Amino acid sequence: MSTIKSEPTVFVIFGGTGDLNARKLAPALYNLFLDGWLPKQFSIIGTGRTQLTDEQFRKNLNEDINNFSRSGKADKEKWAEFQKNVYYQVSDAKDAETYKEFGKRVEAHAAEWKVRPNVIYYLAVSPTFFPIITSNLAKAKLTDDVEHVRVVIEKPFGHDLESAKELNKLLAGLFDDKQIYHIDHYLGKETVQNIMAFRFANSILEPIWNRNYIEHVQISVTEQLGVEDRGDYYDGSGAMRDMIQNHLLQLLCLVAMETPVSFNADEIRNRKVDVLHAMRRFSPEDVRMSAVRGQYAKGWMEGKEVPGYREEAKVDPNSNTETFAAIKFFVDNWRWQGVPFYVRTGKRLHQSSSVITIQFKDVPHKIFPTEAAESWQQNRLIISIQPEMSIRLQVQAKRPGLDMILNTVDMVFDYKGTYTNQAPEAYETLLLDTMLGDQTLFMRGDQIEAAWDLIMPILSTWTNKKSLNFPNYSAYSWGPESAEALIARDGFTWFSLPLKNTKK
Ligand code: BG6
Description:
By secondary structure, this protein is of the alpha/beta class. It has helices at residues 19-34, 54-68, 76-83, 96-113, 130-139, 161-174, 190-200, 231-235, 239-256, 265-278, 284-290, 415-418, 426-436, 445-464, 481-488; strands at residues 9-14, 42-48, 86-90, 118-123, 149-154, 180-183, 214-222, 291-294, 296-297, 299-301, 304-306, 324-330, 340-346, 353-360, 380-386, 390-398, 406-414, 473-474. 36% of the residues lie in helices and 21% in strands.
């Protein structure tokens, strides 16, 4: 049961009938309710163009929860209690009446609960609706109460640096900074939050967390899934915009950031944006040497033939969009000078897993005979974000026996073996934080712009110069050969954890 008490809250979910609400938001709210994190007085108002009654909407949510909740099918009694707080409002984002109606509903709750509730407007809609919805919320004076009203938006935060600046300008003109919550769901993942705990709550790491001891860092987020039914969105986006601009660069910031002075949201976000500012900008020559793109061809996945990217629904048959990207970054500051950060992500790859590998420098002098050290490996710290949730330190140790043979062994902290309770989903953490008014795990406008600024030279080069060899990797492989070459040139190989069943 919870220890933190959240205030009475009204959630208004734009895109109430959409996929994000079905798969993530509704199950997350329901699980927060089950675990006692929701306040006694709460209300969830789904809204969208579809004509639905409260009853029909509740029935849909019930099915979504049965299908997607980490806690399995909804319990009858609990659901009955929960659904009393769920409503639906048919809306037209362009129509002022829609917003008046929200206002009336919020006031009705305030009167009934005899308190000024928090109100969270969640924009689970296509970014084309951001300007109209946010402007209308402000116009209807629904967001004037800076202390109680928050607006949550989902990525993509712009399509490039210019459009991100425009969006930031729009939001800054309408709301106070502390009302704006840009969601990057990676930051809500339990294992991702643990990077900061692990780095800053253990004194043994800081002395070695730098260029003197660390040889290189790898951040690898690979997916077996293809673009599924999101071809129209993805074809205008690609791996750089969809994953690297946000999730992967945020992971990199957590690994590379300086120690914050306190656990204060802005202090932490300042330290993260420092990393983005310190990252080396790409010249056209750097793009050629340090950035690799790929697109999947058809292939076989576990006995089933899967289509290539250009054959997917709603994708241009001549598409130049990358479904894979691997980049070598540098962070130009004292701590990281000369340490490469290799980042890769892609769809339709061999394994679904997100792993950060920190490889330490080799011992300065080897005292063991060659026969003893045949399987010698440099020390590695492996932070596995998903599906395995673990932190491993790979070290050399003597294999038991009469002879001196060294083996690489893992010292492991595994969530499964250590904790019995199920980890919350990222969206549970992030929704709770919006209720509590804690922005630590949310992207700030300047971080978003700094990340765009960094990747723009790569994007422009790739847009201006179409790839001549797309598709260049087959489904279920580890991506294009050029990605192997990128890291092999420096004498390294991509690391992956052997996983038994990684299918998502
Ligand atoms: C989303 C991307 O932000 O993250 C998707 O738009 C991607 O393309 C997803 O599949 C990956 O998230 P997760 O939590 O499944 O690793």
